[in-house]
Design goal:
By secondary structure, the chain is of the alpha+beta class. Helix content is 15%, strand content 26%. It has a 3-stranded antiparallel sheet with strand order 1-2-3, with no helix packed on it. Strand 1 and strand 2 form a beta hairpin. The protein is extended, with a radius of gyration of 17 Å.
């Protein structure tokens, strides 16, 4: 698995001059060899429709997990991790 996320966070912290700068949308999972794997996630929001076809006032938010690194294009290897 690539280390793009770690590199990008390091560059972000370096450019901002803040060693606590963080990126949103990052998830971690523990792989088969008890190693932590880092991968990118995203989220989106939308308004559901009522039975009459109008939109509800409140938005619904959901998340997605990318299959490929958005920085280098390498396919993430989730191994036996179940994704939904």
């Amino acid at each position: 698995m690539c280390d793009c996320v770690e590199k990008i966070i390091e560059l972000l912290q370096e450019n901002c001059g803040d060693n606590e700068a963080k990126m949103n949308g990052i998830s971690f999972c523990i792989g088969n060899n008890n190693q932590i794997q880092t991968f990118m996630t995203g989220s989106y929001s939308f308004r559901k429709k009522t039975k009459t076809g109008e939109f509800y006032k409140n938005k619904t938010t959901d998340s997605v997990v990318f299959s490929f690194c958005p920085f280098c294009g390498e396919k993430y290897n989730f191994g036996d991790v179940k994704t939904t």
